[in-house]
Structure to design on (301 residues):
């Protein structure tokens, strides 16, 4: 059976390398769902986004720019996007879900070590299966890095529970905006619906991913500032319109192109979705911060 051109995924996906990535993704989503359901704390969702952003930005440096390793999930027709999707699943889904679980249930340090070693074992399994390859990376980097990452998750959640400072609130808003853009647009990006040209790399897919991340960082910075300072609706609407105008400019400069008209509509709609979510997150965090300030004032009185 021929797949529609818009999907551009390998057929069948439940065979070969793909099954390992899909199985781990399913287990990670179950772990994430259990954690969020059990704790019922919206701050955990923000923490998950924040952890995903940290892992994603680190991946941008070591994977996209420094070519540390390669994944072979066999899910996408485009080999580089297939590689990038494997990295996305590994960092933003698998690792972040485990880190959130550790932070939410305040697991002891021995569990940080156990989870880090578990991922190192999975890495060796993937190397043996041929679905993953080191270039200059080493598994010891994975183990040490994940132990620190899990510790950061624990500390970060404690800060959120204590009512975050202004700087921490902005960091959460920025990270949440960035990772939501990545989550909402990743499938369209990896299925070749968007093309960006920056001249960074000869490989068109690698260049597209790089420019996409840079644009996403800029948009996340703008949205996080608007939400952080609680600017009025007029400014929010004008900023959104300016973003849409910028897409037209990028297309005129041949920096951005899309496969279908609805791709552009969806790309623009994510700005509204993320602005609404980010504004809500800011209300939740601001409420905690105001309650903390009131409590401090009462104690001094």
């Amino acid at each position: 059976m021929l797949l529609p051109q818009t999907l551009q995924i390998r057929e069948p996906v439940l065979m070969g390398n793909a099954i390992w990535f899909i199985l781990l993704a399913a287990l990670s989503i179950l772990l994430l769902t259990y954690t969020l359901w059990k704790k019922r704390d919206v701050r955990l969702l923000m923490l998950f986004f924040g952890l995903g952003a940290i892992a994603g930005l680190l991946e941008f440096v070591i994977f996209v720019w420094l070519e540390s390793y390669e994944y072979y999930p066999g899910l996408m027709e485009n080999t580089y996007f297939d590689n990038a999707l494997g990295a996305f699943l590994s960092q933003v889904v698998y690792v972040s879900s485990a880190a959130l679980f550790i932070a939410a249930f305040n697991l002891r340090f021995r569990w940080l070590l156990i989870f880090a070693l578990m991922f190192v074992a999975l890495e060796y399994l993937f190397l043996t299966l041929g679905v993953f390859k080191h270039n200059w990376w080493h598994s010891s980097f994975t183990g040490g890095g994940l132990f620190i990452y899990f510790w950061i998750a624990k500390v970060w959640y404690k800060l959120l529970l204590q009512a975050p400072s202004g700087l921490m609130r902005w960091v959460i808003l920025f990270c949440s905006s960035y990772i939501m853009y990545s989550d909402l647009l990743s499938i369209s990006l990896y299925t070749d619906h968007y093309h960006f040209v920056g001249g960074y790399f000869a490989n068109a897919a690698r260049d597209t991913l790089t420019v996409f991340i840079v644009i996403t960082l800029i948009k996340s910075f703008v949205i996080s500032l608007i939400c952080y300072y609680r600017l009025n609706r007029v400014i929010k609407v004008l900023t959104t319109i300016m973003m849409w105008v910028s897409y037209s400019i990028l297309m005129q400069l041949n920096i951005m192109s899309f496969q279908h008209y609805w791709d552009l509509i969806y790309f623009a709609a994510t700005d509204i979705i993320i602005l609404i979510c980010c504004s809500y997150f800011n209300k939740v965090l601001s409420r905690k911060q105001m309650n903390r300030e009131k409590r401090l004032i009462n104690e001094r009185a």
Q: What stands out?
A: The chain is about 75% helix and 5% strand.
